[in-house]
Design brief:
rod-shaped, Nucleotidyltransferase, domain 5, 4-stranded antiparallel sheet, Gyrase A, domain 2, 7 helices, 299 residues, 2 domains, alpha+beta, 28% strand, 5-stranded antiparallel sheet
Amino acid sequence: MRVVPDGKPRRRTIPKALLTGEGPQVRGRRMHRVIDLVVPPDLVLKRTVTAPATARGKLEELALLDLRRRTPFGPEDVHWTLDPPHVAGDTLTATQWVAKRADVAAWRERLEEAGYRLRKLVVEGASGSRTIADFTRQIAPGAQRVIGLNLALALIAAGAATFGWLYPAWEAQRQATRIETEIARLRSDTLDLRKDVQALRAQDAERSAFWDAITDRPILVDTLRAVTDALPDEAWIDTLTYQPDRAVLTGETGGTAADLVLRLNARDRFDNTRLSGAVSRTSEGAERFQISLDLRAVR
């Protein structure tokens, strides 16, 4: 509601005389109507506060200090508010609106008698309709709680809406992260399996080489058996020098060394059988010989 000076109240206005007490006392209804009242500037004190531009963050403190120094009022005596400051060079200038607490208390009492309950007192003409006094907590103790509850509900609703909007993307991101983790695990398992396969291949190669060495190379027992089968009873061996690919036989024979070379060469197990040393005759008439032969691999 607004205060009008002509004493003729209209809808959403009240006469100025109701506040100042200059008119007749008005009795209102029993049920009080809660109002925010806009008063003309002439009912409050208008002051100008100046401060250095660098003191913008402490302007309210400076305004309160200036109020103490230049007026007989302290903060416990008045309601006050500041308009947004204006900057001119290095100086801040702001308008301070001041209302005595005693006057405001009297206005509230007269409004109560007229059926109104004052919630906020606003100065007409103040920048942004600045509130000079707020009695919300006094006339509606639960209002702040309701406002807080409404704000909490609004935040919950906004959070739920945001969650509903972001959840699909979050879920997709979570699934993508899980898939990436699974891919990384499978890659690691693949590398481990590859190492295992390579180790098995190496073991198989070693095993194959081992069996090849056993089956493809001649062994001493086979060589001895073949030599024994090839030589006649009249020949005997003194020395046999064995290597994996060749053997050297030294001994004596009642026959001829050349016959022994032919006998050994006829065996499939031997290649390139030859006399590798001089043939001599012993005192008993036997020939002493040295025969070399290459060994053939037999599976």
